[in-house]
Amino acid sequence: MTCIICEYQTPAGIYLCGKHVRMLRELLLRVPDTLKTAGQTLANLGVRPSNGSSGTGEPPAPINLNMEERLGEYVKRLVELGHWANEELEPNKLRIFTTPTKAAEYLHAVTTQLIKREDAGDLYWELTSLERAVISAADIPRSKRPLGECGALDFTEDGAVTRCDGIIEGHETSTVGRCKTCKREHDTADRIRNRITEAWHVRAPLRQIVNALKEAGYPVSYNTAKSWARRGKLAPTCDIATRQEGHTPAEVLKVIQETTSLTGHIAS
Fold first, then answer.
1. Torsion over CA of 195, 199, 202 and 208, rounded to 10 degrees?
2. What is the pLDDT of residues 84-99, one digit of tens each?
3. Which of 36, 54, 64, 65 gets the highest tally of CB atoms within 10 A of its CB?
């Protein structure tokens, strides 16, 4: 079988590869932080009457009305998805989720069962979209980082195809990056992972590679990577220009993907 999202090989009866199972679990574990981010945005000073008086005594409206709407949808759908999963997996043991955090905890607990369903990909994309909508509406200042060329395709009136050469920028903690030229949104996690996957030309000491992969969301330990090197799963190559031996991010990532596809976690 293959992963319903990326078509990477998966064990029989499993619809998500190890990488996307991990990402699904991380999405669910991030729910409290996402709610906290939204709450901080809505807790900012509201819009008060221009004369400075409290007027009717009603509380001020939130500054970020966009966040209020997206947060409402996020909370509602998480609870709905929790109840849906409960009805599908435990029809004789119905549960009541009073908070989105409790629903997320349940979804995380039954992930192993959810990935055996054909709609596992739909669940993954819906949770990703919900989180992305909330985070992109946050008004917390964050530094930006470049994420490479956009590359989005457009069609002109005469039928010619053009490619956007704008640069994508994304906030450090955001799941969404935006092209500075065409303003299209891109998944920052996918952009970072794609760049790592393609980085066969960048060589560095193994510890440096492991640290870079950790920052990109791959929780591989240095000791695990060293054991792979000892057993021949990783082989250092020499940079002709510097005459220094090292490993590439893509090489280490390939071994990570191979081990997680078989075990569901990074095995040493």
1. 70
2. 999 999 999 999 999 9
3. 64
Residue 171 has, within 13 A of its CA and on its CB side, a CA count of 13
Closest CA to 74 of 16, 11, 138: 138
DSSP labels for the chain? -B-TTT--B--TT--S-HHHHHHHHHHHHTHHHHHHHHHHHHTS--B--TTSS-TT-PPPBPS-HHHHHHHHHHHHHHHHHHHHHHHHH-TTS-----SHHHHHHHHHHTHHHHTTSTTHHHHHHHHHHHHHHHHHH------EEEEEE---EEE-TTS-EEE--PEEEEETT-SEEEETTT--EEEHHHHHHHHHHT--S--B-HHHHHHHHHHTT----HHHHHHHHHTTSS--EEETTTTEEEB-HHHHHHHHHHHHHHHSS---
Model confidence over 112-147: pLDDT tens digits?
999 999 999 889 989 988 898 888 777 545 556 677
Separation between Cα atoms, residue 76 and residue 71, nearest integer Å: 8
For residue 218, the tally of other CB atoms under 10 A from its CB is 20
